[in-house]
Structures are given as structure tokens and as C-alpha cells.
Amino acid sequence: MSTSLVTKAATPWRTRTRRAVGRLRRLAAERYQRARVDDGMSTAEYAMATLAACAFAAVLYKVVTSGQVTAALREAITRALGGL
Fold it and tell me: A Pfam family this protein belongs to (predicted)?
């Protein structure tokens, strides 16, 4: 008789525990799915940053190799080395 009382008293606790575990599992699964949705974003952002860096390098190369900048650099180097 005492066994049936313990079983009946423990049943609500077990039910609540099972429900709580089920909720935690669903929450963990939802978070995992949300995290997986963003997997491709880092690759796309990396590609865009690489493309922007290449475009900036091309513009910088054009500026540095222009006639005015080349002459200014040559003059600065001549002045710096002329004092030696």
C-alpha cells in the first residue's frame, strides 16, 4: 500500500519533469536551427570584404602610379637622400 502512495505522489513530479525536459529540448533545437540559418552569411560577408579590398587596392594603385604622385614621391625621396 505504501508503494502505491509513493507512486501516486511521484507521478505529478515526474510529469512536470518530463514536460520541463521536453521544453528544454525544444528550446535547444530552436536555438540550434537559428544558429544554422546564419552559416552562409560569414562566407558572403567575407567575399564582399575581399571584393571591396581588391577594388580599393586597384584605385590606390592607379592613384600612386599617376604622374603627379610619382613626381611627388620622387621629389620626397630625392630630398630625403640628398641630405646624406
Answer: DUF4244
- Does 60 share its domain with 80? yes
| pLDDT score at 1 | 47
Residue 22: domain span: 1-37
CA distance 47 to 36: 19
User: How many degrees, rounded to 5, is the angle at CA 45 between CA 44 and CA 46?
Assistant: 90
Q: Consecutive sets of 10 residues in the chain, 84 residues long: mean pLDDT of each?
A: 53 79 88 70 84 96 89 90 77
Number of domains in the chain: 2
Q: Residue with C-alpha cell 525544444?
A: 26
